[in-house]
Amino acid sequence: MQKITRENLIEKASELLANGTVSCVLGWGKGEFGYDVTPTIFKTAEDMKNGFVFNDFCGANFSKYLVSKTQKIDGKILVFLKPCDTYSFNQLLTEHRFDREKVYAVGIPCEGMADVSKVKEIAGDGITSVDSEGNAIIVSTLYSDEPVKVNTADVLAERCINCKSKKHVAYDELLGEEGETLESARFDEVARLEAMTPDERFAFWQNELSKCIRCNACRDACPACTCEKCVFDNPASGVENKSPANSFEEKMFHIIRAFHVAGRCTDCGECSRVCPQNIPLHLLNRKFIKDINEFYGEYQAGAEVGSRAPLVNYTTEDLEPGEVFDRRDENA
Amino acid sequence: MRKISLDKLQSLFAKIAENAKLYMPVDNADGSASYGEWSEGTAWSDALNTAKSPKDLFFPQTEDLMRFKTEGKNIECIDIRSEVEDFVVFGVRACDAKSFDILDRVFLSEPRDSFYAMKREKGVIISVACTRPAETCFCSAFGINAAEPTGDVSAWKTADALYLQANTEKGSKLLDSLGDILEDTSDAEVAAQKENIAKIMDKLPLKDVSTDAFGGGKTKELFDDPAWDELSSACLGCGTCTFVCPTCQCYDIKDFNTGNGVIRYRCWDSCMYSEFTRMAHGNNRLTQKERFRQRFMHKLVYYPENNDGLFSCVGCGRCVAKCPISMNIVKVMKKIGGNKGE
Amino acid sequence: MNNINDTLIPTVGVITDVRIDTPDIKTFRVVTPDGKKAFDHRPGQCAMLSIPGVGEAMFSITSSPTNTEYMEFSIKKCGCVTEWLHQAEVGQQITIRGPYGNPFPVDDVFAGKNLLFIAGGVGLAPLRSVINYCRHYRDRYGDIDIVYGSRSKADLLDYQEIIEEWSNDAGVNVHLTIDNAQPEWDGHVGFVPNYVKELGFDTNKTAVLCGPPIMIKFTLEGLIALGFDKTQVYTTLELRMKCGVGKCGRCNVGAKYVCKDGPVFRCDELEELPSEY
Fold first, then answer.
1. C-alpha–C-alpha distance, residues C143 and C151, integer Å
2. H/E element holding B190?
3. C-alpha gyration radius of chain B
4. CATH-assigned architecture of domain C114-236
5. Would you kindly state where each structural domain of chain A is located, as residue ranges?
6. Domain coordinates of chain B in residue numbers?
7. Chain A to chain B, count of Cβ pairs less than 8 Å apart?
8. Are C80 and C31 in contact (CB under 8 A)?
9. How does pLDDT run across A200-255, given as a tens digit for each residue?
10. Would you call A125 and B240 a contact, using CB atoms and an 8 Å cutoff?
11. At residue A149, what are phi and psi to the nearest 5 degrees?
12. How remote is the C-alpha of C135 from its chain's centroid?
C-alpha cells in the first residue's frame, strides 16, 4: 500500500487548483479493472473526484509528458512525481526539453509499484478489481469465489525490486518525508550477462531481440528519447523502418537506441515496462550505466540539473580506450 | 463430432504434422505465449491469447514480395513466390478465427492479394473454444460466441478430451486424413462445456460494451466528437495496439538493397505512426489525435460501411492488455458511445 | 508462379523520351522493353512507377488513352523517387504497374457537355489526359474552356502543346495566367481563382479542377459564387499511397480509399468525407 492516498493527492491538487497555482493536473485516470490506469489531464477538482486514481499500479513515469503538455497549457501544470520520476524530470531539464516555470512538481513517496503480470501469475487471470490493504493487494477474479490476497512485495515491478532511490531530486513541494538513495542490486543481472561467454551472450540477446515487433513503444515511452524527429521515423535517414528487412536490423534498432541514451538514461525502466513482448530492454541501458560507473566513476543521470555526463565531459583522468579492450578480454 | 482423449494429444499433433506444418500457441519462458511450429514434444499452451495473433501466419509482419536485379540502365524483376506448403494452425480462439473473415474481405477482394490468398488456400484453421476468457475479452460485443468458434475445424477442450468438428471441406479432409486416431461421438458431450462458457461470458466485466453508436454512415456524427481530444491526449503514438491486433492490415512496401540486388518487401505499418500519411509535400494527419481517431473510426465506422456492417474488431483484448498507457478501443467505445447513447 | 498475377508485382518499363517542361517538371515517355504501351488506361487514372532500391510512387498518367503507342508522366521534383527520375536518361528502365483509380466520367457524365478545365501548376498533368481525350473525340463534347495558371511563364506545363495545338482547336478557348508580371509575358497576370471569377463563366458547364489544395479551395468557392453546383465540379485528390488497390490503408479517408475510389471525386462527394485530405 502506498503511504500516500488518492484522497491526499486530490486534496493537494484541489488546493493548488483553487488558489490558482496550477491550471491543470497530470495524474492517473481510472481504468476498467483497477490496474489499467491512463495518464490523464484533469482540469478541475470535480474531474479528479470522478476519474483520478492512485494505487499500486501507478508506475507510469509522467516526466516525458511534460515536454508536450507544457506547450499546450496556459499557467502551470501540476505533476505528481515518484522519486525515480524526478531523475527523468531533471535530465529533461538538463536537456532543455521543457520550461520549468510551467510546472509545479509535487514529490510523492513511493513504496514500489506492482507489475500486473506478476499479480496474474499468483492470483490467476480474469482480474476484475484490485484493492490495496496493508502490505497486500486484494484481487478479485472471474475464477475464484473469494478475492485472492497477494503480498505486494511478491509482485513488485522489476525496477521497484531494484529501486535505486527513495529520494526526490526535484520538486516544488514534497508530500511525506525526504527519502534516501538506496544500495540496489540492479547491476546483478548485468553482471550475470557479463559473465557469459560471448556466444552465450549473443544467444541471449538474439533470443530476446528476435521477439521485437518494432512497435516503438520503448522509444515512445522513454524520457531520454525526446528527439522531435527520430532517425528511425525519418525516411531520408535510410534506416527508417517499421520492421526489419533482415535479422541484423532488429538488433541494430535497440543497440543504436541504447547508445543514443547512454549517459542520459536514468534507469527509470519504462522501456521494459511498456514492451509488449517482455524484452528486458533495461539491461542494455544498465550495462552502459554500469560501465560508465566503472570507467569514469559513479554517475547518476538526472541526479542534478545541468550535470555533464561522463561520456560528453572529457577529463585527463578518463579511461584510455585500450583499457576498455583489456577489460573486454578479461570478461570474455 | 469426433473426439480424442487429452493424453493422446501428442499423437494427434504428430499425425497432423506428418502431412503438414503444424503451428500452435506455445508457452514462452517469460510467461507469454506465441504461435510456434510443433515438433515432437512441443506442448500446446493453455494461454488464452498469444502475444501476436495468428494473422502473422497468413500476413507476416515482414514478407518479401519480389527481387530486382539492376545492371546499368536495365532492371530485371524476379518473381520469388513459390508454392505454399500445406499447414495447419491449431488452437485459434474464436476471436482470432473471426479475424480471418475481416482480413479476407481486404486481401481476397479484387484484385486479390496472391501472397495472402496462397496461404489462406493452403492453411487449415483449427479453432478451440475458450475455457477461461480474461477480463479483457469482449468478443461478444461483435457477435462472436467464444463457445462456437469458426474456422475449418472447431474444437472444444474438456477435462479429459478434445472434441473436433469439421466446418468446411478443408476441415473434413483434414479430420478424415487422421484415420482412427479420432473416435466418433455425439454433440451432446460438449453441450455442458458450451453452457459453462456461456456462464463465464455472462460474468465478463466488458460484456456490456456496445456497438450501438457505431457502424457505417456515422462518420459525420462521430468524427468531430470532442472526446477524441481527451481520449488521444496520452497516446504515445507507438504501434503496439496495431501490431498485436488480429485485424489491423495496413502495410508499407519498402525496398532493401542487399548489395547484390534489391528486395522489395512489405511490412506491417501503423496508422498511429507519425509518418504513415506523410507525402513529399505534406501530411494530412499532423497530430496524434488525428492518427488515433483514424484507427478507431476505421474499425468502427469506415470498415463496416464498406463491409455490410461487419466491424473490424473481434474483441480479443490484446490492445486492452498491451497498451503502454491503457488506452484502448473499449475506452473509446464507452466514451464516444456513451456520449451518443445518453 | 508467373501464372498468378499480383498487382503488386510490376512490369519493366523503359524511358524513351525526357522532355524538360519547366525548371522543376519533366515529362517522361514510357513503353515496355519491346516498345509497346504497358497497359490501357482511362483519363484521370494513375500508375505506380518505381526505381528498385529508391522507392515507388503514384503518378497520374498525363497522356491520353487515345495515344496507343506510349504513356507519358509529367513529374515535379519533390521527393526521393522524383529526384531520381529527374536525373534519369533516355534508355533507363523503371518499373510500372497499374492502371489505378477511378477515371473522369468522360463517356457518360461529360458527354455532350460544355467543359471547363481549371488547373494550377503541375495540376495540369492529370488534366492533360482528359483534355486530349476530349479533343480527340471533339464532336462528343460542347465548348471547352481551359484556365491554366502557374507562377511564371517558365512554370507553365505543356506550353508548346497548349499554344500550338489546344489554342488552335475549334471551340477550345485557352485562358492562361501567371502569378506575377514579367517582361516576356503579355497575357493575364493573377491567381487562378481570381481569374476564374473575372472570366465569369456561364454555369452550363461541367468543371474539372486540379491544382494545389489552396487553389482548389478558392476556385471552388469562386465557382459556387458564379452559381455552379458542387455536383457540376470534379477534382482529384492526392494522398500517400503504397499498394494502389485500397488494401495498405494509407490513403483511407472516411470510408473511401483515394487510390481506388478516387483520385477523381465529384465535389459534393467530398463533402461526405471527413476533412482530412
1. 27
2. helix B188-203
3. 22
4. 3-Layer(aba) Sandwich (3.40)
5. 6-113+162-174, 117-151, 188-331
6. 2-203, 219-341
7. 122
8. no
9. 999 999 889 988 888 999 999 999 999 888 888 887 777 777 776 666 666 788 99
10. no
11. -95, 125
12. 15
Sort residue C35 into left (φ over 0), alpha (ψ -120 to 50) or beta: left
Band (B342; pLDDT cuts 50, 70, 90): very low
Q: How far is CA B155 from CA B166, B187, B291, C71, in A?
A: 9, 12, 39, 55
* Buried b or exposed e, range A284-321, using 16+ CB within 10 angstroms: bbbbbbbbbeeebeebbbbbeeeeebbbeeeeeeeeee
Q: What is the spatial distance between Cα C140 and Cα C117, in angstroms, rounded to a whole number? A: 16
Which 3 state secondary structure label does DSSP give B150? Answer: coil
Closest by CA to B22, choosing from B44, B38, B45, B11, is: B38
Question: B264: nearest CA in chain A?
Answer: A245
SS3 category, B254: strand
What kind of fold does domain C11-100 have according to CATH?
Elongation Factor Tu (Ef-tu); domain 3 (2.40.30)
Distance, C-alpha B315 to centroid of its chain: 10
- Using CB atoms, pick whichever of B132, B239, B331 lies closest to residue A125: B132
Report the gap between the CA of C6 and the closest CA in chain B (Å). Answer: 6
Contact flag B238-A277 (C-beta cutoff 8 Å):
no
Report cis status (omega within 30 of 0) of the bond before B111: yes
For B220, the enclosing helix (H) or strand (E) is helix B219-223
Among A28, A32, A67, A231, the strongest candidate for a mutation testing the B interface, having the largest count of B CBs within 10 A, is: A32
Residues of chain B positioned with their CB less than 8 A from the CB of A233: 273-275
Distance CA C138, CA B281 (A): 36
Alpha helices in A64-178, H assignment, sequence order: 65-69, 83-94, 116-123, 158-161
Q: Output the pTM of the full model.
A: 0.93
Cβ-contact C87, C115 below 8 angstroms: no
Chains in touch with B (3+ beta-carbon pairs under 8 Å) read: A, C
The H or E element containing residue B15 is: helix B9-19
Sign of CA dihedral C34, C38, C43, C46: negative
For residue A128 the three cell numbers come to 476484475
Confidence of residue B312 (pLDDT cuts 50, 70, 90): very high
Task: Tell me what the mean pLDDT of segment B175-189 comes to.
Answer: 90
The three grid cell numbers given for residue A99, joined into one nine-digit string: 520550461
Distance CA B54, CA A46 (A): 44
Cell numbers placing A206: 538474439
Binary contact (B111, C255; C-beta < 8 A) = no
Q: How far is A326 from chain B (nearest CA, A)?
A: 34
In total, chain B counts a number of residues equal to 342
- Measure CB to CB from residue C255 to each of B73, B81, B302 and give the nearest one: B302
